[in-house]
From TrEMBL:
Coiled coil segments of this chain: none
Protein's name in the database: PAP2 superfamily protein
Domain Phosphatidic acid phosphatase type 2/haloperoxidase: 106-220
Ranges that cross the membrane: 25-44, 72-98, 105-127, 147-166, 178-199, 205-227
Annotated Pfam families: PAP2
Amino acid sequence: MTSGTVRDVGLPGPSREISVGRPPWWLLVAALLAGGLITADLLARGPLERMDLRVSEIVSDWGLRDSAAYPVVWVITQVGGRVTILVVLAALVGYLAWRRRTWLPLLRVIAALAVLTAGVYALKFGIGRTAPGFPGSFLFHDDGASFPSGHVANAVLMWGVARWQAVEYGLPAQVQQAFWVLAVLGPVITGLAMVSLDFHWLTDAVVGGAVGILLLGVVHGLDAVVLSRWVRARGRQTA
């Protein structure tokens, strides 16, 4: 059994490995390359910036912000909203603390929030890219905090952490499946909704996804090196 899987022994037939969603090395490398190359292109005012401007013109013509569909699309953006996800995670962590007598899921959530806040806002304020509402895409602007999309990064990381806990602690298959869907499709629909409302540039959403994948790998690494070891050591001391 690898560190990225748990063994399901609750179903009839041979036991099988279920992934907890730890990003494989090739996905981390791909995310790092994609995020780095896109960021470099934008800093050089390359073709991706012109693509962003064109996409923004197209979605502006749709007029979703002024249509009856706006509330529905806005609700979809909240699939990646921090409050939405934290409410779900609070229920999940509370349930596991009560039934399994463990605070490890809470420590993982706290670690994820810490790296998310540090990583995303360092990029946001370091690059200072203005949102599509400005007449153009400006970098290093005092009001710029569009790049990368925090909603997409949040959806990748935090729904990934939720899926991890659901699988590792053997919650019902339907719950595991629901979190799998949120971890995989949540970031996609969040990014599409943000771009369609012209709240973010397309590259903001793509790099937000890449950052979320990298940070999920960081949290898994922290867990393997620090969090799980500390909790196991505390358990041995208590015993």
